[in-house]
Specification:
Length: 179
């Protein structure tokens, strides 16, 4: 029986089969050695080739493959392209996080801060802590460690078995002016 087509957030119609094969490809990433990085990217490229030429998913997935194999410089323009093509929703938020990390890796953390700061006010989802962690790293690279530490402690506090309120207050006090 053929897979049912579905609309991906910010993307074209894909099939459940395509999504499953993409998930399987990424699940196999750790099975590839550094020497096999090109082989992994080829698997992603083959999947992307099945998408419409203007799909925002194509550059997003290719960017992730380049990024994950140590080439942030090649990933940055692809993430930008995916976002420019309208990638949004969950994958769009992932693209912003990953682009910010890549910008930091290539020595442009201020761009990461600009991209992620608005995400602090986005509707909450499971990526909130990743936004804060990546933003904290960008801030640290800019010499704004107290702000970064505040974000990380604030993200960590709800996950602690105890001391949630104290840690949240300590996080806030790191960036509030002294009274």
């Amino acid at each position: 029986m053929p897979s049912r087509a579905r609309l991906c957030e910010g993307g074209p119609v894909t099939t459940e089969d395509w999504e499953e094969r993409l998930t399987a490809a990424w699940a196999s990433f750790d099975d590839h050695s550094e020497a096999e990085a090109a082989d992994f990217r080829a698997v992603i490229d083959a999947l992307v080739a099945e998408l419409p030429a203007d799909s925002p998913l194509g550059p997003f997935e290719r960017a992730g493959a380049w990024d994950s194999t140590g080439h942030s410089d090649k990933a940055v323009p692809l993430y930008r392209e995916a976002l420019a093509r309208g990638l949004n929703g969950y994958r769009g938020r992932r693209a912003k996080i990953q682009l910010s990390s890549s910008m930091r890796n290539i020595g442009q953390p201020e761009e990461g801060v600009k991209l992620l700061t608005p995400e602090l006010d986005a509707p909450p989802d499971e990526l909130d802590d990743a936004v804060r962690a990546c933003l904290a790293l960008c801030l640290a690279d800019l010499g704004r460690e107290r702000e970064g530490l505040s974000l990380v402690l604030g993200a960590l506090a709800p996950h602690l078995p105890r001391y949630q309120r104290s840690m949240a207050n300590y996080a806030r006090l790191l960036v509030e002016p002294q009274r």
